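Risk register update: the risk of archive-format incompatibility is retired. Evidence:
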Amino acid sequence: TFLAKGSATLDKLKDICNKGKEHPSTLLQLYTQAVLDITYFEENQLVDEDFPEESSLQKVQELSCILSEPEDLVRECNINDKPINILGAELLECLYWRKGALLYMYCHTAKERTEWLQENIAIFKKCLNDGVHYLMKMLSFRCPLQLNEDVSLQDKDTARLLSEG
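Archived output:
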């Protein structure tokens, strides 16, 4: 299972840290893989439970924060390199894909809860915007978007999303 896989990765990370010989990028990559494995298990629980109305928003926010930790850690370690050069495109794509997909799945479920939606439309819109942002960012790691004259922008939000890539 993914929890066992995540736990094994954390054990490997602990062993490497105790030896003290590994490059920080390897440690950060192993940590990122453990985060992806463990959060995958938790995301599946949310999906299996159909995103329980009373607790799922908080859990989605927690998972999103956890999935942001590896990139934040790269910045906090004062490594004078971009996260993509430390973690690699594949891991960064996975982190952003998972954040975007999680918000998409949550919004897909939440839109069916009419009363909740009416009371929380601002939260719903923020989740949608954040999800789109994460997915667009995921796509930009290997294929940065280059706009040309043929691109017709219908509104400023679309223009912003495209320009931020």
